[in-house]
Fold each of these.
Amino acid sequence: MNKKEKGSHGESIAQTYLLENGYEIVDTNVQLGQLEIDIIAQLNNLLVFVEVRLRHDNRYGFPEEGLSKTKIRAIQRAAEFYIQKIGWQEDIRIDLIAILEKPELSLEHFQDIC
């Protein structure tokens, strides 16, 4: 599996999780210039920007450990640009979904990461 396929696989797992937990998927793989948002979901009047991190195993650390402060700031900028673009007036949140495939599939949802 190449990097793009791995990303799509992780995002598919995350979307299924979000749908099962009452979220509506608004958009995926949103490109805003140089910035990207993996998943935009909505839960009631809350718009949630979701970064997805997938690792095959934890040999090199857990998926959430790969999220840098620089990447978090980029997600914040992308979210700000997106809400201005669509005129969103309600609350927003930025989340991380960390997925580890081995030894068994596990998913951890970190809410409000910044």
Amino acid sequence: TVSLPTIQCNVCKKNITKALKKDEGIIEFKIDVDGKNAKISFDKSKTDLSKIEKLITAAGYDANDKKSDPEAYNNLDDCCKLPKDRKEKSSH
């Protein structure tokens, strides 16, 4: 289970899904927006937790104790940013 403390909405879920699909070692995963985590099954001979965390942080999200890539985070849709970083109030 990977903690996703900055996940906000279904757009976030879609972005993280896209990132995780880049790793052929990941067998399956389930992202829980409300629970702010992802349960990930992976082939340990093809990938590892740090690579998976790197994919998520490169997509602009925190993963466990790893911080998101600042540039990727800035490029996220407003609804995917933390409320304090949003340009305008959104209804998501």
Amino acid sequence: MDLGIILETNDAERVWNAFRLANTALDADHSVEVFLLGDGVEAPDLQHEKFNPHGVMRQYTQKGGDLLACGTCLDSRDLKPDDLRPRATMNDCLQLVETAEKVLTIG
């Protein structure tokens, strides 16, 4: 299955759970693409005493998961693209929606 996840939150537990799902899907030999949108572009910077968003995101990219981040959303927050938030466009988000077999929005 080709899974697309649009992540629109900076809630540490929701980010953590989204990437736990993404990692589980990769482990089951599914392809996964995650698009960080809106507050989701802040996900790599989140810290929490119980949840580790940064760690599960790093695990996801190390397993070969595709990760994109809305460039406009980065700019509006004065954030620079990096390996956990590669700059992308809404055309990239549209392509995710068009090509994924299933799309989840977590926000």
Amino acid sequence: MTLNRWLMVGLACVLASSATLAQRGGAAQGITRGAEQPNQNKWNAKGPWGKTERSGPLEAQRKDPFKLFDNVSYVGLQTVSVYLVTTSAGPVLIDSGYAQTTDWLIDSIKKVGVDPATIKYVFVTHSHLDHAGGAARIKQLSGARVGLSAEDWSVVEAQQKDARQASNFPPLARDLVLKDNDSITVGDTTFKFYFTPGHTVGATSVEFPARDRGRSYRAIVPGGLGLQYAPEAGPSFKTSMQRLKMLGPWDVALGNHPFLAPKDLAEVEQELPKRGNGPHPAVLGAA
């Protein structure tokens, strides 16, 4: 399936609530996939990720990190993506996982040879707790700038004031506001931001170069590919997906859940050690 077709199929698909996997002793346990999941709805079943979407208990989400590109490591969870992008001026995180899993995120960053205290930026694609919750601890540890759109900063601030959300959103003052079509250059790497609301009111997609064996590929982390809540968000979501298609072509699309990608990152991880001199399994090409 091409990236463009994948994005268009996404228009009709609804992503169920954030899911998790179990992992014990290096082997995932207690996994439910696709239609076996009690929370999967018919739209997800029809999506390109329908058979690979998975869930499990939060406490079992821990996952070993792996190097995805020469400058990109996957340091996220079994079902929620976090990407570490290394630059000549320091590392950058895209998303931050749950507040409750930040210790695991910090351990994963260390395992790929990066000191978490050196992180320069955390770019958060949207305000859901599984993507924004860990940002406060990372900022406290490293002094990193944390960026969201103005709209999603407002959502985070409202959630912080809700006593029921206290454990999900630790105190984090509004910091960097990501604006549509802005860019931030960190050393040898430029990150570009596109306002793509729908999944949340302020979802922001992040573009950056993914480098592999001397080549650079145009990569995108979409701001969110599921419609979870009010149906009035539908038109915004559709417009945003059409915009991502028009902003292409893209060589690489990295979902903020590992199964929300043209190719499941679990499959990419398995193929990387076997590629030899072959193409990178996550590079599908502009077409």
